[in-house]
Specification:
By secondary structure, the chain is an alpha+beta fold. It is built from 5 helices and 3 strands. Strand 2 and strand 3 form a beta hairpin.
């Protein structure tokens, strides 16, 4: 599943348990095929996450851009789409911050995809 589709579903209120955004680890895990499958190694996990981050920085369609908020529950950035005339590179966090917080979990396949998340993701896939 595409990360854009996941963030659009969040924006539409389909993940109503989350108030500030979705974790990068959940988004990358949900984007795997099959959903939640682990990466072959650390380098592939890093590269795929970096690639997704770069795509998010450049995303600016229909007046929507990706932005981040700090989530105290996850102790790191969470991501969402927001309206605005923000320029490219307005994500509000860096790849290093995301990787420092979520990298080990992404490498180990601990994406934090709950049963609730799976149910929502299956409806939007």
């Amino acid at each position: 599943m595409n990360w854009i589709k996941i963030l659009k579903a969040y924006r539409q209120g389909k993940f109503d348990r989350y108030y500030y955004g979705l974790t990068p680890r959940m988004i990358i895990g949900a984007s795997q095929n099959p959903m939640g499958s682990t990466f072959e190694n650390e380098e592939i996990a890093y590269n795929r996450t970096f690639e997704m981050f770069q795509e998010m920085i450049e995303y600016n369609e229909d007046g929507l851009v990706v932005t981040s908020n700090y989530c105290g529950i996850h102790k790191g950035p969470v991501l969402s789409l927001t309206e605005g005339n923000l320029a490219s590179h307005s994500l509000g966090t860096s790849f290093d911050i995301i990787w420092d917080r979520y990298g080990e979990e992404i490498i180990s396949g601990e994406f934090g995809i709950s049963a609730y998340d799976r149910k929502v993701l299956m409806k939007i896939s």
